[in-house]
User: Fold these one by one.
Assistant:
Number 1:
Amino acid sequence: MSVLSYSWVLPLLPLAVFVFVVITGRRTPRLLAPVLGIGSMAVVFAASIAMLSLTAAGARFNATITWLQVGGRAMEIGVLVDPLAAVMVAIVSFVSLLVQLYSIGYLHGEERFRWFFGAISLFTASMLGVVLSNGWLLMYLCWEIMGLASYLLIGFWYHKGAAPPAAMKAFMVTRAGDVGFALGLALIWLNAGSFLFEDVFGMVSTGAWSGPSLIAAALLLLAGAMGKSAQFPLHVWLPDAMAGPTPGSALIHAATMVAAGVYLIARSFPLFEANPVTLTVVGVIGTITAVMGALIALAQSDIKKVLAYSTISQLGYMFMALGTGNWIAAIFHLMTHAFFKALLFLGAGSVIHALHTQELKHFGGLWRKMPWTTATWCLGALSLAGIPPLAGFWSKDEILLSALHAHQYGILAAGILTAALTAFYMARTTFLTFFAAPGPESMSSRAHESPWMMTVPLVVLAALAVTVGLVGSPLTGYSFFGLLEAYEMPKLNLPLAAVAIGVALGGIALAWSSYIKKLIEPDGYLRFSFISGTVARGFLIDALYTNAIVCPATYIAGVLRVIDGAVIDGAVNGLGGAGLLTGKGLSVFDRKGIDGVVDGLGEGVVDAGDGVRRTQTGNVQTYLLLLVAAILLLVVVFAR
Amino acid sequence: MLTLNHFLVLAALLFCIGLFGVLTSRSALRIIICVELLLNAVNLNLAAFAAYVAPQEAVGTSFVIFLMVIAAAEVGLGLALVISLNRTSSIEAIDTLNELRG
Amino acid sequence: MTTLPLMSIIVFAPIVGSVLIALLGRDPRVPRLIALAASTVCLAAAAYAYATYDRVAGGLQFVESAPWIPSLGVRYIVGADGLSLPMLLLTGMVMFTGVLASWNVTSRPREFFALLLLLVTGVFGVFAAIDAFALFFFYEMAVLPMYLLIAIWGSTRKDYSAMKLTLFLFAGSAAILIAICLVFFQVGAGTFDMRVWAEHGFGADFQRWVFLLSFVGFGALVPIWPLHTWSPDGHVAAPTAVSMMHAGVLLKLGAYGIIRFGVTLFPDGFASWATLIAVIGAINVLYGALCALNQTDLKYVIGYSSVSHMGYVLLGLATLNRFGFEGAVFQMFAHGIMTALFFVLVGYVYEKAHTRQIAEISGLMRRTPLVAAAFVIASAASMGMPSTSGFVAELLVYIGLWSLSPLLAGLVFVGVVITAGYLLRMLTRILLGEPSEAVAHLSDPAPVRLVPVGILAITIMVVGIFPSSMYETIRSATGPLLARVMGG
């Protein structure tokens, strides 16, 4: 048995931390929760390094146990360790480790300090479960726990007005996708009779399972992925999820929740690959999401909102990669994105921590006060913008390259457009926050650099944001792709790379001329009411949902409630009332009719008796007279 | 020629007189006398039938004798009742006696 | 096999307790102890029967038989199979936790516990009865105490609700009685033993109409739409333990009756009405969920969620395949536990905060973290989240539905999303936010009150994570049943 056979323990470590925090509550020393959380993450990260090296050497681990025996076929769950899982475990545990370290500083005064680490641990545990499972059933289990954890994490500041609805929205929207996942599970079971990846992939590759049900199953899984990965049209929860604490947002948006959807499709890729139509759907959704997210990010005035829409846009990028058939590129971008986006979120958190505001107009010129934050942020932003040799360049280039190779020119064009937009809005945000002269509403004078517990993770992440892309570059011989067993190694296409770099630099230059040099009016495009009204509000998709789904549902519910009360209950009550009325009528009939007859008889008898009584005078002579009269009568009648 | 019919008519007249007396008299004494008339009307009938229908057999006459004994007893009893009634309620008129009234 | 008369112990322990309470319960603390003892005996016996049931052999076990009314051919026959055992276990658990949840009943505790035990006897009797007459007898026995318990210890329009409930149930039982009589005379064997009845081949038309009769009769209790309105009102009006029995167990009596009496005796009649049942089930799911979306009273939300969830039972049955059948019975158990947990929690909040209005309750997570956690677990089960018992049931029903009709699966999809909607709406309002005035002084309950919460929550998780034992038990009953339906 290899050490990999113990990998099922990994998700249980943070889960144990969560249970511990829930049970002990405030009875433990304050710092115990983060120590346990970080400790468990350190163990998991160390294990993931071992997993990486072992799997790179060709080791695999796949073990199942039967969860439920359904009619001769076993519903099985189990653990799979392969390079993909190892990479994901490493990303998740590392980001979670840094986020927790950072949170000690960020949330130092928070009342529910321990609970935060509990929630983060639950979150991480569920994500580890997702990436380590060897079938959809266990994955779905962890998937849903993640939804619950996101609810807890986003709703952490429940006394803030925005947090509870945001938490609910996140759970609700992802839940809508998850029901698709669950129905997909049922469909997979019906057609393949197994939930394990290897069994189902085997059936798909041999053609034992094909046709419309396969397409339906893939699309239902896609629905689940779209919910978690915030793809159009299920992206609406993500910007609202910013109501949670910033480190939590960093975890959600960088390494865990949103990555789960991309991971699901990458993991289930044979199902998608089997039918070009499903891949096309993935690509189209990714393209729409990428462009839409970038456009909306242009018009945001809140630093976290910019990052949120940027995340949506970048996730769209990953879906584009999946749509072109290159799932490794998607995972590569997921990895680089995890590091630089975590860096950007934590950097934004550092600024927010210093100024207690998230509005860009309250910032400006912060680079003097917060040198570490500024430097690391800039590296992250450049990486996101796709400037070589930073990580984002390599992964983004890979996606454009695979679009080119797949002859998906629509995706290619959208990718380049998104790259330009991304460079622009990141540069805009960077300049407005750190370099532009403070505006009239700026609060930058109060700024201070954050404590070391917060800056150390920033520096570590910045180092990774710079270097991690190299594993997918020709400099290391595309070792990342080799690890994940790509069919063919990518090859750097210089003209394409030049275009990508060109548009990125162009975007930055435009922002520079506008926000620093003021050659162009800063934010001048916001004057267009379409942009400030429609685009800035997310193309009004939220409003659409409110008006087209939430309101009608509430309305129907109200109507049904009334119907239930008025019509059905009314019918029941009416029936009861009619019964009562009939009863009343009957009782009247009873009293007047039947009783009348009975009473009448009785009274008649009494009356008759009364009448007859009068004949009983008590006078013997009268009696005798009657007697004689009667005899005479009888004689007259019968004596004929 | 004296036929059965003559006796029967006489007896009927006697019976009617007696009945009239019983029904109309207010005096208890007179009622008792009228009852005697009724009984004797019946006796007359019995004797007449006995003489005309079956003269050889003594059935009718023996009935008459029985009846006369009973009548004597009845008069004795009736007179005793009338006297005791007179003593207890000192009434004579019989139509005031309506204690049987329902 | 054991020689203990397990079924009789289960059925008669509560009534013995009831009599003891009537005789001894002068001290206000004695009744609850006797009730707890009786329910412990029942729970232990039910758990023992569940554990020792031979799942491989299947069929009816623990059968006891004794003459009852010889002139009519009525016998007291009780036994258990894979269908009734989960229900007996469920009833035992709900009763046990219900007694603990009623620990603080101060108004006439003697009558309360005596009636509660009487009610439980009726419920146990129905689940254990094999003789149709005994089944009907126990069924009626359950209804009357329910009326009194709601009318005396209830709240919110209790007279109306109690009367409505009783009338619906009696109307249903009238239909059942007619059905039983029809079958009795049709079989003509002078017995009410349903095992004998099951051997008798009924004609197609007879099956068709008598099944419908029994479906409507027992369906009133499920409750099937549109005979459901007594149910939310009843839930709301009843005191905690009775709500638990009502939603957790009583609704299952209806579904159990449909399966035990209707489906078992008239498999062809059942199959001919499957489409109608599926439509009613889908209406139940959607209608109940939508109604729950807009309620202001916590208990109404849960009441309508029961209407919605019992729809899955009907849908599962209507699929006419093994997954659906297994899912339906699993759902009966899962829903019983989760609703009981909901009512324990709502009962606690109501007792302390004196309100059940969602608008007046917020911030429970801060004041009562354990209650909040239990709310989350119950809601997770209700939403069919994996690792809860609700997921197993819903997964099986989904699989069954897919092979029946993707359209219905799509409808259920909508229903599940709405379910998540109303539960999240409720959770978000009452758990998050600053503690409202009503809950400002609340704290987590004393250990004795936490025991029922813990038992139910742990059961939800354990059955959800290790469903095999429950599933095998259920399958030993649904397998032969489905064979009857499909083979007939």
Note: Chain A touches chain C through 52 residues (CB under 8 Å).
Number 2:
Amino acid sequence: MKRIVCEACGHSNAEGTVLCQSCGKPIEKNQHIDGNEKTKLLNMRYDGSARRSQTYNKSFVDKIWNFFSSVKVGVWLIVLTLLASALGTIFPQEMYIPQDVQPLDHYREQYGIAGQIYYQLGLHNLYSSWWYMILIALIGISIVVASIDRVVPLYKALKMQKPKRHETFLKRQRLFSQTNQPSLNDKEKFLERLKSKRYKLTEEDGHILAEKGRFTRWGPYVNHLGLIIFLIGALLRFVPFMYIDEFVWVREGETLPIKGTEREYYIENNDFIFETYDEEEDRKFAEALQNQSAPVASNYQTDAVIYRNHEAELVGAEPDLEKVKEGSIRVNHPLKIDGFSLYQSSYQSEFSTMSFYIHETDDKDEQELANFTVDLSNPVNHYELDNGFEVELVRYMPDYYLDDGEPKSKTDYPNNPAFVFAVYPPDASEPEYSFAGIGRNIDATGENDYKIALNGFDVQYVTGLAVKRDYTLPILMIGGLIFMIGVVQGLYWQHRRIWIHPKGNELWVAAHTNKNWYGLKREIDTLMEDTSLIRVVDQQEQK
Amino acid sequence: MDGLVSISSNFLYLAFVLYLAATFFFGGTIRSKNSTSSQTWVSRVAIGLTILGFLASVVYFILRWIASGHAPVSNLFEFTTFFGMMLVLAFIVMYFIYRLNILGLFVLPVALLIIAYASMFPTELSPLVPSLKSHWLYIHVTTVSLGEAVLAVSFAAGLIYLIKEVDQSYRSKRTTWLEIIIYSLYATLGFVVISSIFSATDYNATFEVTNESGVSTLEYHLPAITGPADGTLVTTDRMEPWFDTPGWMNGAEAPRKFNTLLWSFAVGLVFYLITRLILRKRIAAAIQPYLRKVNSDLVDEISYRAVAIGFPIFTLGGLIFAMIWAQEAWNRYWGWDPKEVWALITWFFYAAFLHLRLSQGWHGEKSAWLAVVGFAIIMFNLIAVNLVLAGLHSYA
Ligand code: HEM
């Protein structure tokens, strides 16, 4: 690699250096890189060190590298992602529309032609679209490239700063002053005060560099690192092992294997509790509760026992369960076991038993002759009743509905149970058929002597638990933490440097900060208070 | 318990009065001969009153917490009031870094407006639904509002910068936009005034709305300029709506909220025009001479510094704590809910702001405009997202 030797101090600089790393003298032929003009202030970003992106622009790799290392490109990517994100909030995303409708119909009906276009452009699933992912990925690449392009040169430049700088370098700093014949006393006072403000002073032949807050320069790189770790964490979710997302419905009293655990864990639902606020008990909320049309939920809770199955490995073996944990699962309070978390996500109430009685069709008082109860999760087919009646359960539809006039069951859950019973009256050989359900009781032939009527029912709750195991969470936490450390490090402090340069009878003071110039100028003003030193002038203001 | 709530409300009222007084004292500092950041007895009284007002609002907060049993950030009134408190806190902190009196003259009226705005919403204690019963929720909400409040200080400083620097000798896009910003403050005032008037007269108009899910009712507390689509007015002697609310506005409450918005804009416009008539020039042009002594570089730096301080706090509260809470409550740390997305948009925006300033040299006026846009995004997320875009967060 070519090196550039500084005419003033003889230091050998890397190709592409703008300001000599040792003395800061502008390297004539490279001034265009940072847009420095002869008489104007120096561009001090990255201390004029050689950056790959500013030095090479020949090969294809160079061009790609330079593209991604440009902050302008980075900002464009951020702005594009911002606009795209906003686009996705114009109408609800698909996951927020009702589940039981055709998405296209839904968007068209709700939002007209705009909704249809929205759907057809795929904006209803914008955040998982390939182009949104690509935008995020480009930001990721840009962060990595831009950071590497700058952090190494910046590190080198800041590590080997010399207190003694070239005059041109000092004169062309933004904050600058020249004091003629300063008193030694005043200079000492100034230096002492710098120290008391926790500046670190280094000296070379009477030339002094006072510096503080250098660590803050690494802030952006630390926060970018955090962002990248976070992005990687988010990507790892697509690896099946890293992320398990299941759902179980468990009835009260039921014990079921927990999906996603390969039958290693079982859960028993001892009790599901659903509570609402009560105007009497929660007096302080009475006014708000009166304004609500429906009761306000205060608690959803599953009291659960977790078992471990010692026979999990053996396919088809009877589970051998050992109780390992007992506790309640509430919203905001998941139950955790062995990396898995169980979340209270949903619940349903369903019928658990239904009881019926038989009376004579003509009896106005509907006097009960016999009764029986059907256990809906485990219905028995044959019932022998009092007074010699027998009942056969011919057909059971747990979730009854009419499909073009034909009775069917929508699901296997007893949400709306209906039955066809064959009733054998005492001493009769031919049965009578009855159709019974909630609010219906149909006599198939219209000639039945006996009628089946609903006596009562029990309901039970079924709790819906989300089962999650997410190994990416710690990675995201670490990424977030590093990001926070980095932004605070970068934004809550400033890197300030003050060069004190004796020149003949004069004392030159030049100063630079990476941000908050007004603050630096004010600080120097107070440090120079009641001395004869000339206050630094903001040369950018003057122009 | 009721007693405690009303004592707490009185402290909030006290805070309001103290801020109002402090605003006048900050106004008094304009006349002082030296620069606007000098310390005189007037400015000391001003900041003293501000601090007292803040302490009074802290008492409000604590008493209300005790009364309700949960941190009072759970409904629109509580949350918005808290945002107003945090705005004052952020101002006090910035004041002690830079001691710029004029900043108080801009921030405190905004805080006053916000608190007044908040108290237009139902102020009764509200019960928490299970998903809101989480310490992470309090931590999330309080940190977000603190972050947004600091970012709002950046807006106030940016506004000062723009009023001082934008050339008022001729009409331009910049002067127009500046007037629009000022008008939006008037619209907020319009909301407060019109809501107070009609709530004092107990105005009520009920609509019956028929849709797929049956018949429901919707109560208006302002005369209906815009009514619910498929709604019929059932209260007698009330104004019939002029037109229907467009269907793309989401949520059962949308027509009423939209109606309120229209009223606010209209009343704000009346106030604005009256002021213009009195001043006989653009409002920014009328304020400009009072800012002559303000150091633009200082104001620019305050505006940037507020972003530098606010951005990490916002990230922590609005993204990180929000994700932790979402993970506990809904077992997913991110769900692309509109409110979440707009928090992300806010974050992207301020990230772009910081990069433009650091690398592209966007200082001064450009930076001030960005501060204004950022605040507009925040306000959009606080107010409009709930109106136009429905989502999980619609409790607030
Ligand atoms: C949304 C994602 C990003 C966030 C939150 C972020 C955050 C930050 C922050 C807070 C700073 C410090 C700014 C200051 O001190 O005023 C910074 C600096 C910087 N960022 Fe980013 N950044 C992001 C994306 C990018 C991208 C895509 C690029 C690619 C070009 C990039 C390149 C830089 C550079 C070059 C610096 C300046 C470093 C220095 O001067 O030492 N950033 N970033």
Note: Strands of chain B lie at 205-211, 214-220, 226-227, 231-233, 243-244.
Number 3:
Amino acid sequence: MEMLLYIALFSPLVGSLFAALFTAQKKTLIAGVVPSALLFTSFVASTLLLIQVLQGNTINVELMTWMATGNLYIPFGFVIDQISVTMMMVVTLVSTIVHIYSIGYMDHDKSFNRFFSWLSAFVFSMMVLVMSDNFAGLFIGWEGVGLCSWALIGFWYHKESATWAANEAFIMNRIADLGMLIGIFLVYWNTGTLQYAEAFAIMPTLDNSTLTMIGIFLFIGAMGKSAQFPLHTWLADAMEGPTPVSALIHAATMVTAGVYLIVRSNELYDLIPNVGLFIASLGAFVAMFAASMALVNRDMKRIIAYSTLSQLGYMFAAAGLGAYWVALFHLVAHAFFKALLFLGAGNVMHAMSDELDPFKMGGLRKVMKGTFIMMTLASVALAGLFPLAGFFSKDLILEAAFAEHHFIIYSVLLFTAGLTAFYSFRLVALIFHGEERYKIFGIHPHEAYKFMLVAMSPLAILAVIAGSLKMTYFEMVTNLLPATEYHIHSHTTYWIMTIGTQLFVGLAIAFAYKKYIGKVKEDKEFEKRFCYKVLFNQYYIPHFYDEYIVKPYRELSYIFWKQIDLKIVDATVDFIGTSLYKTGEVTRGVQNGNLSTMLKWMVAGLAVLLVLAAMFTLVATNADFLLSVYHDLGA
Amino acid sequence: MLDHILSILIFFPLLAAMLGFVVNKDSIRAYGITVTTVEFILSLWLWYAYDSSVSGMQFMENIELIPAFGIAYILGIDGISLFIIVLSTFITMIGIASLTDTKRVKNMIITLLVLEMTMVGVFASLDAILFYVFWELSLVPMLYIIGAWGGPLRIYASVKFFLYTFAGSLVMLVGMLFMAYFYYQATGEWSFSLLEWYRLILPESFQYWLFAAFFVGFAIKVPMFPFHTWLPYAHGQAPTIGSVILAAVLLKMGTYAFVRFSLPLFPDAAVFFMMPIAIIAVIMIIYTAMVAYAQEDIKQVVAYSSVSHMGVIILGTFALNVEGISGSVFLMIAHGVVSGALFLLVGVIYDRRHTKLMSEFGGLASVMPRYATIFGIMMMASVGLPLTINFVGEFLSLLGFYQQSHMITLLAGVAIIVGAIYMLSSYKKAFFGEVTKEENKNLPDVNKRELVALIPLVIITIWLGVYPKPILEPINNSVESIVQLMHDKAVTPEAKSAIPNLIKDDKLSSNMEAH
């Protein structure tokens, strides 16, 4: 058992180090194959662990001490329970597929070896994140995935936009990490431990305001990783990285770490329903907010990124309402179909010589049959049509919101479901149907390598069948998570809701097809409208950040340096130094060695001394008198 | 031999330096490397022989020098000073091993050996006068290194460095004399022995004044805002080796002295001044990080980043609990390793291009991939990524201070954001993008001599980040005894409550208070 745990955890690390050995050399296939094989090993180990957990065994191991000082004791401890094993399955499965896919995708890249080194390092960090049994271990993984994400977004480091996006992602995550860190401090000073089990056991005894603080600060950490408003801008910019990275990190795994944190801390958030409601509201808001930006965007990867953001909003909405198992279920289902969608987008990009504007594509289904089928499947799953994965998971979230009587959240999420269907099929229609607009750009699209399609197929299958695993999953995770089943009391209401949702989604798809399947005209009139501009410019939020945060920070830094540090602080020091020096310069005449000058000074000094002596005698002899005057003044 | 190992550690480099004058110029480099390696091995032996379960002073030596005034030659180390001594010998060793072709190399190596003596001396002294002597002596070699091998503004920079720190130390000396005088008044005997001073309980008003006097000396050395302006000049002008030692070890004298003198001698004053100092620390962290971001010269970025990190160390020290102080002592070591490495790395590129302006570089990652990798690791350590050495110290320091103040820690925590901003943007400017300058297209990657210095630093950075226990445990034990001493000595109830009592048994502690 323990052996399996360590194999699952450390195989990606070994793979990463192995690939790192070759980073200085030319592309070698082995640097991609070995990490992939090791990841598959990790996947197999995770599966065996899953079987163990399904039989009701959980494991908790301690590798060694990390930090111990004062009362603080932090080990490298790992836990295999229902939650972490679910995450491990998702992480290892998707990353194995992405690794194999990348062997084909990165085929022509000269930094092939470096890519695999970082990609495997990411998987290792992610495994640490989900397997740790304490907050500090979680934080190691948390920062580790941030580092790998930085390196992979900026993978093509000669591109200014890529390195800029990498830094933006890292710094924005750091802002949230401060919240996380403060949350960890609060946990430590209030419970005296950072181990999940012990800390959560003590939490019910703490007062409500402390718990609220802990809950809020931990959630701030989650907001950064999961790119929730207002820390969301980095996710769309992160699309500068290679597409497999977007599929693995910025869709399936890393961005869901925030949701994982909330699910993991369910015992805490159960105690503070107010914070939960805030999380749910923010989630619902982000779901709609992100979906609206996806409606008009003209960059294929960004559209999918906004869709990820929107789906993360759904997960938070569920988690905030206390439906943790539903949130985790949507997380799993989403990982499958969203990774599939991204990998399909990668195929399209390759076919189109890295063109990202879907308006320049069209009619690709003729040349890319496999990709077309898989992306359509993924989009159907994303839209939530029966019987694909998205239907089950998304419908559950809607039901949960309805059953908990949060009708505003419910309506927002329902409306967003329509938006989701629309932008997904807008994309499909633009890429695969209609006229072949790419011809005027002289591009000759081709289907991806066969093994890449084969590698993607497990995801396609899971996107179709994941819903049927619902009951097994439910029985497993509810050992740990609150087992609330969200039943709508009246059967009629339930059926009206479900069928209504399906019809609504279906209509949205039909509308998208109708609008974009035929001849796509550049609708200049529409593009001049205010709401189009707002959406296209992402509500001007990146602009706002740039203008009112980044620029002032830079200018203020410059002022601090040039004006304050050099002109005030340092100048004061130099002034003291030079004034001492000048005083010496001026008074050196006193000691110039000229006898007559020195005699003059002597006389002057004597005179001053005499005056002082006289004054002192006067004061001393008339002390009584002076004192009485002084007292009179005081009275 | 073990009885006198501290004396040997101090005077062996001095003796070697004097013998160095007769060594042939061609073999002086090998001589220097040999001497510092022997010294380093001796310090490792010290570590090996050190009993980490004992929290008090070990390897004590006590020779009376001027009995009439209680001045003695007292040496001794505990878990706090042990690792700073090992750090000093280590940094000197790799500094000399990686020394690039220098003019008057013989003088340089002799100077470095003398500097090594003063550094070990400062951290091993347990007598205030002895401490003061080594403290001031350390200025001289540094003055010479900056003044003789520095850049165009070297005279200004070295004189500023010397006078500024010297002026501060004089105030500290006055404080020491008063302290000895109070000791005389209380006991009828003169003493400068630190361990005897520890036993003296002073009224709070005395503590405030003495604390302030010591503070001036230490704060300039650290350097704390607003006394930090000598540092950018010193780093800007100093040769690589000078900057490495200055940042890695000399700055630690100030922070070490806070732990060794200010806290245990004046616990009430430490509590009284905790908030003002914490505010200064926050200013150091945020303000200097922003100044670092504005720099155009990569060496100045590292220099200002040192001040910013020192802010975290000060904050941890004044957390006045075991977590915070242990963290700050650990961060002293960590910062020594990481900033030393960063200055070495800046030196690598300076040797090749004779400029440190970031605008002159760009795209170095593709020209010098190994260099970029090592720089990247050290940058991430400086940013405080978990599993690097810096994180342990930073995390514990902030964690410790959180017990004292929520708001201050929140503000100080901004360190992890602003630190990332200046480091990542500098890295981007120098290493990413296209190679635009013709001169940069064929730069050679790091050579063997440079790797000799850098690889061990990388290994330490990761090893102690993953497994800090070998260092953290002895530090923790010694810090616990200091915290307990402070708690027992504290006069005011505020101080009693701010400094935790580590002895859980109430009866026992009340007994101790009665005594």
Note: The first helix of chain A runs from residue 2 to 21.
